[in-house]
Write a structure and sequence with these properties.
The chain is mainly α. It is built from 17 helices and no strands. The chain has one domain: Amino acid/polyamine transporter I, CATH 1.20.1740.10.
Amino acid sequence: MDKSENEKIGYWEATAIGIGGMVGGGIFAVLGLSVELTHGGAPVAFSIAGIVALVTAYSYARLSVAYPSQGGTVAFLDRAFGSGLFSGSANILLWISYIIMLSLYAYAFGSYGASLFSPESRLFWKHVLISGSIIGITALNLLSAKLIGEAEDWIVLIKLIILLVFIGAGIWGINSARLMPPAWAPPLHLMAGGMIIFVAYEGFELIANSAQDVRKPSNTLPRAFYSSVVFVIVLYILIAIVTVGTLPVGKIVAAKDYALAEAARPFLGRTGFWLIAIAAMLSTASAINATVYGAARLSYVIAKDGELPVFLEKKIWNRPIEGLLITSSTTLFIANLVNLSSMSMLGSVGFLLIFGAVNAANAKLAGETGSKRWISLSGVVLCVCALASLLWQTALRSPHHLYIPFVMIGLAFLIEVVFRLGTRRKTKKFG
């Protein structure tokens, strides 16, 4: 049954979905990593990553208006390329990328929580909090996803207020010399540094999943996509400016896992440290909740499309239980055993590939979506260049880790191939 116009989502609500999806846990998790790679050029790195996100938002906006569906990215790829091996592998890669993001959020939750304990016990408490956040929020989703979901709007508002207080209080104490070009990493390192923290922007695509419930979608959806991405670009740049401008790079890197809280200490003192740490835990907890349910639901959508085993298509208590448990157990393993840099790199690789495919999909369907094909083709080029710079950076810094993203991509492809060869199940096409 269709919703009435009054029950549908308006511009502000749709924009809030995009902002909430981006300013979830990414900025808390990857800020220190960005500074480690780019030094005083961290604001530039966030700008570069933001440009890639903004160009991709054009493709998402056009596709969402033309093909409104709860399937979002999955539906767009199937529409453009058919429900074949490429789309199936890409959809499974999307699910894996969400699991990586979930692991990153859990890691950030544990790191900020552990920073409130004595240094000698932080490693222990970090793993306790990582595991506790995943198990606890999975249990909440099994019982009632509404327990956190109903508070989501307030959580988004609180974390934005705290981040704006951080910017407003810190902007006056900036040492501008730390932000000048001599303090930046070399240009190629800036590009690569921007891409390894690209995961901080990935959440805007969640607007596409609500396209069917938006009022006046042809007007509302593009405005919501662009507004949310531009707002977050400005927010991230200001956060990076305050962080690098008020705290030496060495101290930021030493506190890489909880850099934003440490950056608040010079001008807000111990109270500021605690305030940011608690805000980070609140924010990452809400991000874990949204992502664990979203990833489980994505497994349901992909299975219903015929690209994953049929048992993932089942729902109990109107929730995809099997997908939820597989998602959470895999996250528990990755978050406790994989380091921050590798998780951020894997998440960025996954979403750059997916976003490149979505840009290609819109370029292919430009006649149907009323798009300017060159913009989406530019998005494909940007995603490819960004991915190349990220792999180059990995080859320079950790060449022994260069195989990891290829294992992730190969795993997605292998799952799809094995499933297709091992079953006779036919894929379906989103209509």
